[in-house]
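Rotation project, supervised by the postdoc (A.L.). Task for the rotation student: set up a whole-complex structure prediction and record inputs and outputs verbatim in this book. Inputs entered:
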Amino acid sequence: MPNALELTGIRKSFDGFAALTDAHFEARWGEVHALLGENGAGKSSLMNIAAGLYAPEAGQMLVDDNVVRFAGPADAARHRIGMVHQHFKLVRPFTVAENILLTAPPPADFQSHGERLRGISRDIRNKASELGFEIDPARRIDALSIAEQQRVEILKVLLAGARILILDEPTAVLTDHEAARLLQTVRGLARTGSAVVLVTHKMADVKTYADRVTVMRGGRTIATLEPGATPVAELVKLTVGESISVQGFQPAKSPRGAVRLTVRGLRSAASAHGRRVLDGVDLQLHAGEIYGLAGVGGNGQGELAGAIMGLPDGGSSLEGEIRLEGHGDLKAMAAPERRNVGIAAIPADRYGLALAGSLSVAENFAIGRVHTGRYGPAWHLRQGRIQEDTQEAVRAFDVQGVRSVAQKAALLSGGNAQKLVLAREFGKSPSLVLAHSPSRGLDVRASAEVHARLRAARDGGAAVLLISEDLDEVLQLADRVGVMTRGRIAGEFAQPADRQVIGQAMVDHG
Amino acid sequence: MADASLAAVAQPAQCDPDAAQRARRQPLAGRRYALEIRQHMGWQRQALILAIAFLVGLAISAAILVAAGVPADELANEFVMQTFFDGQNFRAVLFQAAPMILVGLAGSLAFRARFWNLGLEGQMVWGAIGATAVSMWQVGPETLRLPLMFAAAIGCGLAWVLGPAWLKIRLGVNEIISTLMLNYMAANFLLHLVYGSWKDPKDNFPYSPQFRAFERLPELGAGVSSAILLAAVVALLAWWLVGVSRAGLYLRFVDANPRVAHANGVPVRRTIYGAVLLSGAMAGLAGFAVASGQEGRLTQAFYQGYGFSGILIAFLARNNPLAATVVALLVAALFVTGRSLQVFYQVPFSMVQLIQAIIVVCVAASDFFIRHRLRRVGAEAAS
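Outputs recorded:
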């Protein structure tokens, strides 16, 4: 029997960063094939290539044992490949039928729009009942739950004729019950001869529903296995890599101090179907320690960071408390005040939250301290002092590539932009440091420098909250490790922690 | 993954080897060029490109004017010599420029806070109504009358934009719609006044009674109204605000990225309120400058065209207050020239608006050359 889909030797890089170096993948007709790996392992990139969204730089792609090249997703659809993305591609004010009509192949003979809508509605109802659920084609997308929207996406690719179905993290947004239903539907599709690729990081889904599993790590394919014959511990090990954790871990020089930050029962507002992004976060952070919060992305880390920084979105709808010792509940404080009480933030989204790329290096540096009056009174900015301070900080934090402090911050490379953020945030000794994926996208040397700064902040008495999806980073830096899943802290571990155990806790959703 | 796909969109030439090939296959003017996104350009070259675009706009305008029957050799004379080097005409330009500068500054300031204040005309109308009310009701002693009219104009202009600002910041209501619609309310209320209770009893024309001498902006001598001085002072204040003060830095961050601004402790809401209310106040002052500096009374259509001109001035000046002053002078010169063309060559006044539009389109299109670069692919193949 031929392979439905085969990719060999795929290479792809983005702006100099190699996302895929040597990736292989094959899926047979009639199987559910899981693609397993951590965030950034390259799973989605590889599948986006299979779906025609990206063009590979090297490698070969075969559908039904024929070599293919896709100019775009429409090409892939002609080869009967359909992908359901993690973030749905639906037009929210349109109805189910209208959305599906957008991608449906055009009819052979002329039909009016009304006829086509009626035809597609009939097809939608038939296909849905075939798959074992009901859906009203006349409902608008924004009136549907997430699980229903996902069904629309699946119907969309099936009605466009897909026989190779790629689902990118389909269960990430679903409740356990919804996820089980979806995966049963998917198994049913495979039984009728389709090939289903399940991109996931959840061991349980792989064990229960996949016929075979391919593990990826760091842009490479590590192995293809039968999940039934492989113990979970083996899969976890393949996914997160060999244990190199204790290397580089440097415990704090002095014992940790008093409690600095207490987060208790932090919950965000419930969405329409009762899911909360933050669902009762409890943690305590001491002075002079680095608390590493590990977890698969999208489990509430960004929202927790936003809640501590005081970002406007959702800030007012939080329940619970975030108490900074000596300053009371942070929720009552506006973002500028939080800066004044010594909170330094290194957000994950560098140009979305930390730096204004179109403004100069000096302006980006000065904004951190301008409200203290260091750069003159409100009616006069002392440009000279801003430039001196910036030049000094650029030197002290070794920010490379700054020809002039008047140049735009967007011209700095990722590592140097991050160093500029550090220079600003660590300029005044902070009492609480929030670092979210601080070395994401940085090379080894820049990462090491960022890590050294975080350790120095800790040894200087700051409480450091390190939120990272990179388990290596957490294990190297943290004095204590917490694991975040589904909007709460699922477990805490003392260092040196067992990498396998933490890796297991990250993927358990029990 | 979101980052990666963004990179793929933003820099197709770098990550897609096919793109370069495709570009090579598309010959342009007999040679092969590739189009690239340009990350950065020095301000001198930006200024040069803007100047060239401006000149291209003028050339197209000149061609249209010639086609409309203005002798080609008279054009330079009309536009440059008559306008700037004839004393009387230059005074007319300054006369016209004062409210123009004020609305240009009002536009620049609001746009810097990412607030699309299309209600400049409505705020102007209210500024003039406020000033006229002080005159009608004879508020305060004679010596204080002018300062009171000034203050009333500021207050009324500011109040007229307060609603849209609040709606936008609190409830996310689109300010383009709200400010634009409020223009019609202001204009109709103005008609209600000048056709109704404020109609001049002397001759029953739809305008308010003539302001008294001490209610009019004084002449500086040589026929130049002090309105231009007022505009110049406001321009300097605006320049100081955006270029020297701390609020200017806050505004730049709000303009560049409101989320970054918020996360870095910029009081985003207060900054937006401040800029927008000042914008309304300046537009109100423009109304005062027309009523008290030009017309000497409240008339029914004094505001027409200023809203569009204010937006145009702010756009051409890239929201820079000093540049806005210069551009406002040029636009005023265009108005004055347009009027004399109307008289001498029977060119309709709408031609002035056409010329404005052509220049805006040219300058807007020049942005393409600032953000992109055409590179000869052959050169790359050789290197």
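Student's summary: Chain A touches chain B through 52 residues (CB under 8 Å).
Supervisor addendum: Residues 3-240 of chain A form a domain with the Rossmann fold fold (CATH 3.40.50.300).
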